[in-house]
């Protein structure tokens, strides 16, 4: 435990404790925080769900999740300490008279109550009402909610209003787990702590920027959720737009939450809306068909378990984004994200402008532009691609593309790279709002996403098929080819 800081212990209540997010991400991240000695000794974790379970069964389930994800790396001493924090309560979240049980468990005097809403958004109103009526909340209590917050601007406003009726804005932590990823945070350092980038980060020097979030996984048994959501809302509305705002924002005054939010909102407000007239030129939707990942054959989207075989939901999106402001005028951002792509890869590639004249034409007919490649996951790191002279004393000057390569795992060998959820859960437990989303940011993002969804809705086009294990439909390549560019290989 960090002895220099004195944080209050918490009662972390997870609503939907038996669900996917809780068992696959939250409990694992909490165990890892325990292992790193970052949980306050008196913090407790209370799982809530509608099924009958004894505490011991919940503990068993947590252990099984750890085994599934961490294999045989579980440290039994750490596990003993961690499991002693766990308990379980059966509450049907739609039944107001069941919330009183929280009274017997929550200790509002010496602990902060942290309410993690790990359930579908339609239950948020009920939980807020239940908590309000049973009187367990106080000014210190916090609530955490997950993206996607809503389905569009209208539903997002409804959810935010319902939550605001019970929690003040400074008690609400809106999570996007990408904001907890080490490499996303490193964007702040890269841009605002290095003068070579602060002074070369606009339309004068940059040609265009690509952001790729490619996933190898399919929809992982979540057809019902995913089919109503689609890749645009599931990934682009939040994760990719968050990365985009970090890349494009003006320098914040400081690292306070409000300063960062202000700058991000300005970027989101400057996104050029996509209309019925432009949608076909600047967006591509795709849906995966049967294909191969590594050597394994995997089913297409319409053959997934529980699939609606008529579905026209997109599992891939590529978009040309224009930011209508002074800094980025004329610099397109190309965003793409898809499921069942060739391999998992999240990266930002900044293409600098071509030089106006080439004095090395004998060796290189056309000088390739410098590139800054930021690998967010896996293999976190930063590379700069540049040209160097090949050593030699005879003949012409020969150039070769080389890389300045900063691999995080090589450079920071002794440091563990924490997962997004670990970082963010810790920040919630410590009450630090910097890495969370503001209501305005989310609503601004929805305004832009709704413009795309509306334009798609009015078009007769359907997503274009792409075989699993590829980089999406050919139309995604054409999107860049039309502008004389291509995706980073
Ligand atoms: C989640 C989406 O927010 O992010 C999933 O709902 C997606 O569909 C996941 O697979 C990707 O997260 P990561 O951290 O694996 O890139």
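Sequence proposed for the structure above (489 residues):
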């Amino acid at each position: 435990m960090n002895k220099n800081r004195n944080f209050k212990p918490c009662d972390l209540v997870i609503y939907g404790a038996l669900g996917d997010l809780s068992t696959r991400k939250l409990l694992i991240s909490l165990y890892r925080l325990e292992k790193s000695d970052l949980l306050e000794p008196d913090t407790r974790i209370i799982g809530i769900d509608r099924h009958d379970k004894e505490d011991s069964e919940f503990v068993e389930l947590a252990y099984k999740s750890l085994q599934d994800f961490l294999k045989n790396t579980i440290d039994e001493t750490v596990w003993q300490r961690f499991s002693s924090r766990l308990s379980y309560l059966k509450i049907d979240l739609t039944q107001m008279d069941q919330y009183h049980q929280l009274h017997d468990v929550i200790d509002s005097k010496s602990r902060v109550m942290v309410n993690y809403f790990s359930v579908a958004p339609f239950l948020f109103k009920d939980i807020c009402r239940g908590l309000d009526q049973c009187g367990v909340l106080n000014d210190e209590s916090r609530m955490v909610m997950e993206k996607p917050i809503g389905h569009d601007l209208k539903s997002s406003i409804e959810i935010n209003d319902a939550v605001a009726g019970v929690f003040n804005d400074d008690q609400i932590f809106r999570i996007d787990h990408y904001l907890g990823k080490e490499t996303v945070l490193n964007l702040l350092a890269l841009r605002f702590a290095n003068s070579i980038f602060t002074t070369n980060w606009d339309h004068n020097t940059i040609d265009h920027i690509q952001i790729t979030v490619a996933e190898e996984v399919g929809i992982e048994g979540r057809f019902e959720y995913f089919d109503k959501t689609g890749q645009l809302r599931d990934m682009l509305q939040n994760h990719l737009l968050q990365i985009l705002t970090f890349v494009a924002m003006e320098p914040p005054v400081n690292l306070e939450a409000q300063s960062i939010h202000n700058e991000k909102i300005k970027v989101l407000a400057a996104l050029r809306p996509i209309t019925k007239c432009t949608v076909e030129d600047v967006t591509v939707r795709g849906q995966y068909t049967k294909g191969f990942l590594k050597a394994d054959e995997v089913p297409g989207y319409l053959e997934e378990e529980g699939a609606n075989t008529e579905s026209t939901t997109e599992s891939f999106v590529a978009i040309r984004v224009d930011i209508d402001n002074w800094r980025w005028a004329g610099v397109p951002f190309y965003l793409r994200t898809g499921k069942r792509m060739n391999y998992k890869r999240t990266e930002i590639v900044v293409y600098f402008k071509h030089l106006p004249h080439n004095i090395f034409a004998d060796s290189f007919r056309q000088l390739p532009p410098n590139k800054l490649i930021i690998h967010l996951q896996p293999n976190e790191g930063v590379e700069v691609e540049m040209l160097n002279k090949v050593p030699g004393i005879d003949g012409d000057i020969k150039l070769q593309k080389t890389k300045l390569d900063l691999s995080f795992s090589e450079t920071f060998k002794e440091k563990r790279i924490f997962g997004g959820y670990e970082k963010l859960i810790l920040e919630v437990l410590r009450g630090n709002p910097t890495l969370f989303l503001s209501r305005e940011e989310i609503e601004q993002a929805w305004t832009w996403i709704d413009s795309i969804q509306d334009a798609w809705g009015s078009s007769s086009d359907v997503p274009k098929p792409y075989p699993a294990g590829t980089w999406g439909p050919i139309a995604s390549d054409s999107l860049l080819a039309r502008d004389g560019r291509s995706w980073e290989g």
